[in-house]
Design a protein that fits this description.
The protein is an all-alpha fold. It is built from 13 helices and 2 strands. Helix 7 crosses helix 8, helix 8 runs antiparallel to helix 11 and helix 12 packs antiparallel against helix 13. The longest helix is centred in the middle third of the chain and has 33 residues. It is flat.
Length: 301
């Protein structure tokens, strides 16, 4: 860069700096550089595999369960993992647990699907109109703090002893959590993305489906996970109180009956089944959705 010298008459004089000397660098042989890539080893590669780490966590918890139960020595109060697995395999083989799981899952998926559809309608209306925003804010403030199991007596009064009552309480428990997370995700979408959609002529439902849902999908997916957990908890609690739905008993009623019969190992088998289904849904269904959407889009590490 040239030096600037201020002249008496206000003119700037530039003095040329000496040219920078050229530097010659010798090219090194690749053998002289050393090791570029290093094998991390078999065990470190295995440890970097997330499903394996989580499986080891489950193994550790199972071992801790078995050790504590054997030290306690009271199968009536706390059966061991081995006794629970024997009871679980026995009821799977005779079809008792399988029938209960199928009944609960059928009701759960139906109620969850209805709640997600209603949440989509409410949040679309809320993000499109001001009256819809006020409606969603008012309804969530009123009904979100209300426990779903508290309205079960009303559901039994309105819909009778049937599947409709269970679906009603599941919809109540899922709807507000999914709606709040989805609406919060919509509000977090930047104005730049909204203006890009409007520049393309998008508005109303098309703006929601093409711009807001993809941009807010991490929040939407989090709401779906929370709603699924709420649905499970509500269904099991309702079946514990409600009992048989239609002509068959669900997983909650299976747990309740075995508790009355003091078959604690079978009670734990029912709880163990709920845990397994939760792990499968979280590890397979929701993670597959994450891999195909937010991870693929670069929105999540």
């Amino acid at each position: 860069m040239a030096d600037v010298i201020h002249a008496p008459r206000g003119r700037a004089l530039f003095k040329e700096l000496p040219a920078r000397p050229s530097i010659d660098r010798t090219t090194l042989d690749s053998a002289a550089i050393g090791e570029i890539a290093r094998d991390v080893g078999f065990w470190r590669r295995c440890w970097s595999y997330t499903p394996l780490r989580r499986f080891l966590v489950l193994v550790f918890l199972g071992c801790a369960w078995e050790i504590y139960a054997r030290l306690a020595g009271n199968p009536l109060m706390f059966p061991s993992l081995s006794d629970t697995l024997v009871a679980w395999a026995t009821d799977i083989a005779n079809g008792t647990l399988t029938s209960a799981v199928w009944t609960s899952l059928r009701i759960l998926v139906l109620g969850y699907g209805v709640a997600v559809l209603l949440a989509a309608v409410l949040t679309t209306l809320a993000i499109s109109t001001r009256i819809g925003t006020d409606l969603l804010a008012t309804l969530t403030a009123m009904f979100n703090p209300l426990p779903a199991i508290a309205i079960l007596p009303l559901a039994l009064l309105w819909f009778g002893l049937g599947v409709q009552s269970l679906i009603f309480v599941i919809v109540h428990s899922v709807l507000w959590a999914v709606s709040l997370n989805t609406f919060t995700g919509f509000l977090s979408v930047s104005q730049t993305q909204r203006m890009v959609g409007r520049n393309y002529g998008l508005g109303g439902l098309r703006l929601v489906t093409h711009i807001l849902i993809p941009a807010a999908f991490p929040s939407i997916l989090a709401g779906l996970k929370i709603g699924w957990a709420f649905a499970w908890r509500t269904l099991i609690a309702a079946e514990l109180v409600f009992g048989v739905s239609g002509d068959s008993a669900g997983l909650g009623w299976y747990i309740f009956q075995n508790r009355n019969a003091l078959e604690t190992a079978h009670v734990f088998a029912g709880l163990f089944t709920v845990i397994i289904i939760g792990l499968v849904i979280e590890g397979v269904v929701f993670r597959s959705i994450e891999a195909a959407t937010v991870r693929r889009w670069g929105m999540q590490a």
